[in-house]
């Protein structure tokens, strides 16, 4: 829901790259694959939360005209590895849940706004 609000689209070609401690938990990764209906990949980079900042710093040092994609593309041996695919039927289950969640969120927001006038 929030991904769509930010202009992101999720298609069958989409993939999620999971990082950090939870990326070692296969059950969490499967839920992510099912909820987003997308393959989930992990990398072997520890402390990957800092990696984005490192990439930005490295990009700032590149000659003008260098694409950010060229800076962040890892060598073949460091490419993310697919660890989970969406379960069959999960899209139907989670899309119904998403509709219900959206409706509940709208009701709570409306209630909150009416009490804070």
General description of the model:
- The chain has 117 residues and is mainly alpha-helical.
- It has one domain.
- It is 48% helix and 10% strand.
- The protein has 5 helices and 3 strands, in the order αβαβααβα.
- It has helices at residues 2-5, 26-36, 51-60, 68-72, 90-115, and strands at residues 15-18, 39-42, 81-84.
- Strands 1-2-3 form a 3-stranded mixed β-sheet, with helices on one face.
- The longest helix has 26 residues, at 90-115.
- It is extended and about 55 Å long.
Gist?
The chain has 5 helices and 3 strands; from the N terminus they run αβαβααβα.
Strand-helix topology:
Blueprint: H1 2-5, E1 15-18, H2 26-36, E2 39-42, H3 51-60, H4 68-72, E3 81-84, H5 90-115
Parallel strand pairs: 1-2
Antiparallel strand pairs: 2-3
What keyword list fits this structure?
single chain, 117 residues, mainly alpha, 5 helices, Carbohydrate kinase FGGY C-terminal domain-containing protein, kinase, transferase
């Amino acid at each position: 829901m929030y991904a769509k609000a930010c202009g992101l689209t999720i298609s069958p070609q989409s993939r999620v790259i999971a990082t950090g401690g939870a990326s070692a938990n296969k059950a969490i990764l499967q839920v992510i694959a099912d909820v987003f209906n997308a393959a989930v990949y992990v990398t072997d980079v520890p402390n990957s939360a800092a990696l984005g900042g490192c990439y930005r710093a490295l990009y700032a040092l590149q000659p003008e005209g260098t694409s950010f994609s060229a800076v962040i593309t890892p060598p073949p041996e460091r490419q993310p590895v697919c660890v989970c695919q969406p379960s069959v039927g999960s899209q139907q289950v989670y899309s119904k849940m998403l509709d219900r969640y959206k409706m509940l969120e709208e009701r709570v927001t409306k209630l909150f706004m009416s009490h804070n006038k």
